[in-house]
Amino acid sequence: MVIGIDIGCTTTKAVAAENSKIIGTVKTKAYDAITSASGALGKIIMENNIDISQIKKLIITGAGSVKIKRNIFGIETYKIDEISSIGLGGMYLAGREGIVITNIGTGTSIIEADKDKITHLGGTGIGGGTIVGLAKELIKSTTFDHILNLAEHGDITNVDLLIEDISDSGISFLNNKTTASNFGKMLDSANREDMAIGILNMVYQVIGMISVFAAKSRNTNNIVITGNGSKNPVGKKILEEISAIYNIGFEFPSNAEYATAIGAALSKEDLHKSVEKE
After folding, report:
1. Domains of the chain, with CATH numbers?
2. What is this structure's pTM?
3. CA distance 129 to 149
């Protein structure tokens, strides 16, 4: 059995894999990488009734993995770079190769993944961290579920400038309900709910558009969405609106939030780097 652990900036995810199949997933939150990795390992062992002697090795990835300098709990521990992990995990979840992946985490990265090569196409600093950071100042909330709840009851027309606000008809192939400027209207009467949907709309529209450009540059009409941001129902709706405009399909596979940890757990030996050799 192999355990893959993705140590992120705020959330750490772990998956257990045996015979190239995922048999368990967990996530924890801690700002200290060692505490987070150890906690995720302990949690996946307990929740899936795994005997520690069954674990052949741990493969860690993510921003926090640089903090791990030795084996965890005496289990052979290796590292794999995050881009490779996302590519491998994305292909596993999509069930095919030759795909473009948009991984939405604290920021957003876009990756092209094939069996022979995984390429980092680029990305943006816009992501979940942007949502929480802006929400802290604009609506005095940092709890993601609370932000989503507010957004679901918000009115975007009180915050964003739409094409209908500046034109009697659509512009080019865009209809009059399309955003002309994020936060470009911002009425004095806009409430917390309106600002919450404004934040999410801006973040996911940016992510959606750079994904569209990436897809078109790689001659594909599909983007696989992974990372924590893949399970955001408000964000998913915004991406689907972009999909309808640009004829680009966004796929949201099951367990997409665990893609990076899955990729680590299923990675090949030649991609690993022992923590003891650093």
Report:
1. 2-84+260-277 (3.30.420.40), 96-257 (3.30.420.40)
2. 0.93
3. 17
